[in-house]
Amino acid sequence: MSSGNGTIARLREAVYRANLRIVESGLVLLTWGNASAVDRRSETMLIKPSGVDYADLGPDTMVRVALGDGSVVNGDLRPSSDTDTHLELYRAFPDIGGIVHTHSHFAVCFAQAEQPIPCFGTTHADHFHGAIPVTRRLSRHEIEQAYERNTGLVIVERFQRHAIDPQSIPGVLVAHHGPFAWGTSVEKAVDNAIVLEEVARMDYHTRSINALAAEAPQELVDKHYLRKHGSGAYYGQSKP
Q: Which of 3.40.50.720, 3.40.225.10, 1.10.238.10, 1.10.10.60 is the CATH number of 5-229?
């Protein structure tokens, strides 16, 4: 199914700006991160090129990749090495429109410790309806064969086996690797990546103050999440 050139041009600009924003937000050092967005109508994804310095990026350098087989649709640049991970998430989670992967400091610390990020308070609950999960370790075979694809598959496995809703928990930690966050758009994916890193930072310091700190009560988590995202949400202004 075709998609208008205007749609792809707008998506190129959005993905380019999202990649710049994760650097500006302090989530990325050097080239340690990437953002992508999907156009479901044309069944293609746009993603940062592999290993290209952020200063050298532009809308036209975003690489367009087929959602079905991962082939580059046009251009000479190779897509991010994490492309197959992004593709698996888009295939498994049909309601997401953008994905961000970084190696942000505090989230990586939790991933390396193989610990989820607990929900200790309302800042977390405003954006994630509970703890941010961590995947299992990849097996030797999964690392040696189709590593990036298997990274996506272990994320999907974690959500499906434990009946986690990727809309209400829009992020994950890959064990010994780092965070992935997503949203209905690439802009929202960046927002969620920023929040994920900040709540990881808050949790680290919460536990440094009180190693036995308790997670927030479920009724408080529900209240804060649902007042922004539930069917009866009342946070913010009504749209005209």
A: 3.40.225.10
